[in-house]
Design brief:
With about 325 residues, the protein is α/β, with parallel strands linked by helices. Helices cover about 35% and strands about 15% of the residues. The chain is built from nine helices and 13 strands. Strands 3-2-1-4-5-6-11 form a seven-stranded parallel β-sheet, sandwiched between helices. α5 (about 190-195) packs across α7 and α7 (about 250-260) packs across α9. The mean pLDDT is about 95. Bound molecules: nicotinamide-adenine-dinucleotide. Nicotinamide-adenine-dinucleotide binds next to α1 and α3.
Length: about 325
């Protein structure tokens, strides 16, 4: 069904809104859905036909196909992505990240969707697998990573059973304009920016020597948007992101520089986390080609300029914890 009409889930969220924008630029007709639990109506690009809906409910998903479908491609980006919190919200995590995905897959298969794009995570790898390569056997260690890996396996099973095409992306720490600055649980750059703009010190776990690679959204959203129309991306699992690892303590200094404020740090006790995470991106590059990535300083400058233009929303902590006790805590 090559009608060029696509569905983007999580369209009011950070990466989903950028993917939708790239789809519009490619002249696709875009329907977007989001329950606004973690996204903002104002982030939905003009030109998207927006539907509010909770994808955990199969009736809502099926109604999308009846009222708006069929869709040639589905980009499934909606998720509850606070990995660290997922131990304390197991049920919410599996309903939002796994069951919602199965609802969408069912509807996609029934509705004749040609290609299903899914944003998984490097959380599927677990520890001790460096560099993170797509051909290593995933060993996720938390409910978020387990849900993402279960989705990957389920999508692959659906492809074998029904021939639906897919591309699974495993992005590495994406940042940029329209990221949720009100979420205290995730995305270190957004947290540092918020703290800097509020005149607070930036909170660093341990001594900040842990390293991560940070990827501007402009380096991943175009590839995600193109995937259903790129032959090499069919039925592929792809790491995507930057190759340049930065120490978290140095990242704080870079965020402060982008905000043109002195850097102030508040050291918190170290938490159990991977010290160094580096992904291998050669497979994605061999398919999509090499582009010159947005340099971290430039990306932070753009994001800081955007963040300054915002009226700062109050912090939106996730309140419906199923287990109050912090993992490993008393
Ligand atoms: N940002 C990153 O660094 C990163 C890294 C790896 C993977 N990912 C994945 O990429 C995707 C997008 O992440 P993001 O950073 O844009 O997150 P985001 O929180 O900004 O966007 C997710 C969107 O999904 C929506 N949503 C949540 N539950 C929903 C439900 N039940 N029904 C409908 N909508 C719902 C939220 O309201 C939100 O707008 C997610 O799948 C995430 O797991 C993100």
């Amino acid at each position: 069904m090559p009608n060029g009409k696509v569905l983007v889930t999580g369209v009011a969220g950070f990466i989903g809104s950028h993917v939708a924008e790239h789809c519009l630029r490619a002249q696709r007709e875009v329907v977007g859905v989001d329950d606004l639990s973690g996204g903002f109506r104002s982030s939905v690009p003009a030109g998207v036909r927006f539907v509010t809906g909770d994808l955990r409910d199969p009736a809502i998903v099926d109604a999308l196909w009846v009222k708006e479908g069929p869709f040639e491609a589905v980009y499934h980006l909606a998720a509850f992505a606070a990995e660290g919190l997922s131990h304390q919200v197991r049920r919410h995590n599996y309903l939002t990240n796994l069951v919602a995905t199965t609802n969408l897959l069912n509807a996609s298969i029934r509705g004749g969707t040609r290609h299903f794009v899914f944003t998984s995570s490097i959380a599927v790898y677990g520890t001790g697998q460096l560099p993170l390569r797509e051909d290593s056997v995933p060993r996720p260690e938390d409910p978020y990573g387990i849900a993402k890996y279960a989705c990957e396996l389920d999508i692959e099973a659906a492809a074998r059973a029904y021939g639906i095409g897919y591309t699974i992306f495993r992005p590495h720490n994406v940042y940029g304009e329209r990221q949720n600055l009100a979420d205290p649980h995730r995305n270190v750059i957004a947290i540092f920016l918020r703290q800097g703009l509020n005149g607070e010190p930036m909170s660093v776990f341990g001594d900040g020597s842990q390293t991560r690679a940070f990827t501007h959204v402009d380096d991943v959203a175009p590839w995600i948007a193109r995937a259903p129309w790129v032959a090499g991306a069919r039925n592929a699992v792809l790491n995507v992101g930057s190759d340049d690892a930065v120490r978290v303590i140095d990242l704080a200094a870079e965020v402060a520089a982008a905000l043109e404020i002195p850097v102030r740090i508040r050291n918190l006790p170290a938490r159990p986390e991977v010290l160094h995470a580096v992904s291998d991106h050669s497979r994605a590059r061999s398919i999509f080609g090499t582009a010159s990535p947005v340099d971290l300083k430039e990306g932070l400058r753009r994001m800081a300029a955007w963040a300054r233009s915002l009226e700062m929303a109050p912090k939106r902590p996730f309140e419906a914890l199923e287990i109050q006790r912090i993992p490993g805590g008393p």
